[in-house]
Amino acid sequence: MIKKIIPIILAGALLTGCSVTETETIETVHTVNIPPKMLFLGDSIPDGYGLDGYSAEDNSHCMSYPNILEDEYREELKGVTDTEMINKAVSGDTSSDLINIIDSGEIDEYLRESDAVIVSIGGNDILRPIFEILSNLKDKDSDLFSVAASIPNVSDKIDSALIVFEENLNTIAEKLDSKTDGKIYVQNIYDPTEYIPVDIITDFTKKKINAINDIISSEADTYTVIDIYSQFTGKSGELTNMPEFDIHPNAEGHKLIANIVDEELRKSDFTYYTYESEEHISKFGIGLIGGSSALALIGIISLVIALKKKKS
Asked: CB atoms < 10 A from the CB of 20, how many?
């Protein structure tokens, strides 16, 4: 009798099409002190303009600081988790251009996936007018008097640009904060013109660059400021291409920026997730086992009763 009952129970399980086990996905959170997924936004500084191997169509083959950090972090996290570095910086972009990129939706997926978003913006907002002075200074036919005479007009342009930049930076910060759960970083701006041995120029540009850096610091409610300015101060001739009247960082400048950004990133913790499958008895299985036990008990009792009747 009992031998007949067990196959009936198993057959019942098969007929119902239900499994006595089920698979559960277990999510585990891990912490590291560098971001596995980074997104760089902004202008020619993270774009790598001027470096060997750079092209406007492909900025992945130069030793820019985003590429330096990508190589370093990939090696450090090898065998731990996958890494990804997306560089959407565009040479020549202003803060208004960056807003347009954010609003376009083209980087929404990258923002969602990023652990850290690093922004370099504002240089083109104010350095274009400053470059007018540099261009005049580079002209052999110009003299210091004519250069000095152009400063008030350039100053007015920069002051207007600073008003727009402050509004734009606030907008950028709000939009990025709404689109990413990653940590947001904004670099301040170094002074490339300190290399020029003309006090009337360097005093003027220092004042304007300090003004834009004050704005970057004052808006820092939703982001962390990365201080590039202080570590470039006094080293413009060594770290930029200013000897050729090019304001961009050279290879040594990019190495230093990579170190500065890395030091700031390592002050925070970043997370990644792993997933494992675990098999255990399903609710149906538990019910089936309980039901089988009860059925078996009923069978035993019925068998005992039958045997007693037979004897009597």
From this structure: 15
Cβ burial of 70 (10 Å; 0-12, 13-18, 19+) is buried
Task: Name the nearest CA neighbour of 262 among 70, 46, 69.
Answer: 69
Question: What DSSP character marks residue 27?
Answer: E
Kindly state whether residues 214 and 164 are assigned to the same domain.
yes
* 79 Rama sector, left if φ>0, alpha if ψ -120 to 50, beta otherwise: left
How buried is 281 (Cβ within 10 angstroms: 0-12 exposed, 13-18 middle, 19+ buried)? middle
Q: Which domain holds residue 293?
A: 2-20+282-311
267 shares a domain with 122: yes
Query: Taking Cα atoms as reference points, which of 40, 163, 42, 160 lies closest to residue 95?
Result: 42
Q: Beta 84-87 vs 116-120: how paired, if at all?
A: unpaired
Find the range with the poorest average confidence among 66-75, 152-161, 302-311: 302-311
CA separation for the pair 66, 44 (Å, rounded): 12
Work out the number of other CB atoms within 10 angstroms of the CB of residue 141: 6
Summarize pLDDT for 162-203 with one digit per residue, the tens: 999 999 999 999 999 999 999 999 999 999 988 888 788 889
209's enclosing H/E stretch is helix 199-218
The pair of structure tokens assigned to 90 is: 């565009």
Could you give the CA distance from residue 204 to residue 155 in angstroms, rounded to a whole number?
Answer: 8
pTM exceeding 0.85: no
